[in-house]
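Before surveying the methods themselves, it helps to consider a single example record, giving the amino acid sequence and backbone structure tokens:
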Amino acid sequence: MITRKSEREITQMQAAADILVACHREIAKMIKPGITTLEIDAFAEEFMRKNGAIPEQIGYNGYEYATCASINDEICHGFPRDEKLKDGDIVTIDMVVNLNGGLADSAWTYAVGNVDEAGLNLMEVTKKCLDLGIEQAQVGNRIGDIGHAIQTYAEGEGFSVVRDFTGHGIGPTMHEEPHVPHFGLPNKGLRLKEGMVITIEPMINEGTWESQMDENSWTARTVDKGRSAQYEHQIVITKDGPLILTDQDKE
């Protein structure tokens, strides 16, 4: 069932998002060759808890970590680990914060040290895909308008759009209806209405869009070992246009 959120619920989500954004800003300072994603995960959990929040991902279907940490050809749901990040890696850190029942969800891809031009271009195009998708998150538009804007741009730049994982509604639980694919046709799918809260989180690959699962049954990676990047924001559909709860550039 798709629910439209009250002003009180959106305020709760914004408070959670403020913690999430602050955590991402601190993680951005930590990203460098030699750090491990397990160290980043421990920091994120401590940061949330000291701010009165709960790492919502811990315990979700048995998941053990506060974050997902996906490196290079890992598309999503990579496990934090002791492996040190290397110069030239790209890593996506994804987390969900629960503050008094309000949820916030955002992923960000970070460059580790000196990333090659192709990797930086992948990151830039993926971030632009997110921005273009958000532009379509307007009252009266349809889900397909979001996906079409993302797919058209990504493929026009020579990249592919992951099909197996999508954005989603959020609140009161982590994953709610509707699914928000990052590909599709304009003017198709569910019509967006004021008060809906969704995530837009394009996963863009260097090579084919196809994915395969690791033996841990969580981590998805590209079948051709091409790199993948992801940026995710949590959006409220409002009569005045999309409101980005997880915006890192409000100031």
Q: What stands out?
A: The first strand starts at residue 54 and ends at 55.
